[in-house]
């Protein structure tokens, strides 16, 4: 969670390139989650129960993914243009991280359990691979939350208590930016899911015509 305005040098360029690739991957995964869940949105509403719950878990993961992308970009931009110092950029990112970690772990837990059930039932390589990846992701996210969330929370509380690099106006701006990026993640997921839902509905009608 370290941010700096020093982007010169081969190492920094490589780090920015890897970050760019990571942002692309997260955007792609989040898009697919939103589309795949959106394709079952109407059906899930009809079936209800566990199916609808799983669809919503997928949508939550998608929204969190888009939010992380937006949060990272906003943090880098505000630090690069000296709107925030590097330390304040860290606080902004940690605020977003704290807002996202519980929905990620909660939704991830449900998705992980479902993938284990599906792998046990089908015994197929594909389902077992998915279950294996979900197990890794859930363990990683949970471990990261346990190791990073307490210190992140402490740093955020210290900042807003008036210590260190605190600034009330910038603190208010940070809160506003976190709200905006979360809203952006939710709206992006909602737009993709509704598009997928309408597209599937049109395909179904066309196939029956």
Average pLDDT metric: 87
| Helix-and-strand structural type | mainly alpha
Q: Give the number of domains.
A: 1
**Low-pLDDT regions:** 1-10
Strand content: under 5%
The arrangement of helices and strands along the chain is HHHHHH
Cα end-to-end separation: 54 Å
Helix content: over 70%
Structure notes:
This protein has one domain. The protein contains six helices and no strands. The protein has helices at 10-39, 41-47, 49-80, 86-122, 125-160, 168-208. Helix 3 runs antiparallel to helix 4 and helix 4 (86-122) runs parallel beside helix 6 (168-208). The longest helix has 41 residues, at 168-208. It is globular, with a radius of gyration of 20 Å. The model is unreliable at 1-10 (pLDDT under 50).
Write the layout of secondary structure elements.
Layout: H1 10-39, H2 41-47, H3 49-80, H4 86-122, H5 125-160, H6 168-208
Keywords:
209 residues, 88% helix
In a few lines, what is going on in this structure?
The protein has 209 residues and is mostly helical.
């Amino acid at each position: 969670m370290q941010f700096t305005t020093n982007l010169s040098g081969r190492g920094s360029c490589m780090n920015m390139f890897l970050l760019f690739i990571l942002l692309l991957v997260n955007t792609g995964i989040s898009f697919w989650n939103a589309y795949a869940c959106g394709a079952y949105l109407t059906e899930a509403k009809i079936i209800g129960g566990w199916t609808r719950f799983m669809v919503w878990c997928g949508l939550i993961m998608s929204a969190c993914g888009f939010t992380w992308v937006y949060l990272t970009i906003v943090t880098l931009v505000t630090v690069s243009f000296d709107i925030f110092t590097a330390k304040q950029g860290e606080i902004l990112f940690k605020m977003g991280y704290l807002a996202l970690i519980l929905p990620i772990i909660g939704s991830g837990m449900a998705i992980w359990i479902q993938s284990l059930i599906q792998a046990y039932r089908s015994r197929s390589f594909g389902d077992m691979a998915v279950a294996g990846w979900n197990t890794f992701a859930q363990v990683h996210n949970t471990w990261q939350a346990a190791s990073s969330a307490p210190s992140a929370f402490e740093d955020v509380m210290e900042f807003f208590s008036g210590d260190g690099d605190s600034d009330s106006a910038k603190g208010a701006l940070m809160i506003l930016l976190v709200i905006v990026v979360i809203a952006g993640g939710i709206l992006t997921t909602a737009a993709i899911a509704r598009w997928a839902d309408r597209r599937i509905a049109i395909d179904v009608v066309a196939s029956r015509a």
